[in-house]
User: Fold Endonuclease/exonuclease/phosphatase from Trema orientale.
Amino acid sequence: MLTVREEAEVDRVWRFTRVYGNPNSYHQRHTWDLLRRLHEVLEDCGLDELGFVGPCLTWNNSKEATANVQERLDRAVANGRWTDLFPNFRFTNLEFWGSDHRVVLLDLEGRASDGWGDRQGRGFKFEPWWLKDSECPEIILEAWANHTFDGSINSFLTGLQGYA
Assistant:
C-alpha cells in the first residue's frame, strides 16, 4: 500500500492511497481479504466512488484471445469535503504502459481529456522509462522541494518539464 499526504494549506490536507496486490499467487487470498476489509472502512468513513473517464476495465491478465481476462480493479474514492476542494477533478483511465494495469490520471483541475499530452503545449506526461535513469529520483525530489503549492499542481509539472 502506498499513501501520499498532500498539504496545500492547513485546511486543504488530503491523502492518496494506492493498494498493490501481492504478485505471488500464494498471498493473493490475503490481498483479497484486505480489500474486503478496506471496502468496509470506506463505507464506515463515508467515502464515495468518484467515477472515471476512459475505458472501464483497468486490469488485463495479458493472455491472448479467449484466455484474456479484464476487470475493473482501480477506483478513486473521496468524501464530500474533498470534492468541494476539487470540484473540477477528473479521474481518467489511460493506456496499459508495460503493466497489467492501466495508467490512471487524477487531474485536480479537470483539464485533461485523454491524458496529458506531449511538450507541444498540451501538458506534461511522465514517461515510465525515466525511472531507469539514476538521476530520476533526485530530479523529482528537487522539483517537489522547489514547488510551492498555490492551489495548483500545474507549477510543479511545469518545473518537471524543464528536465524532460
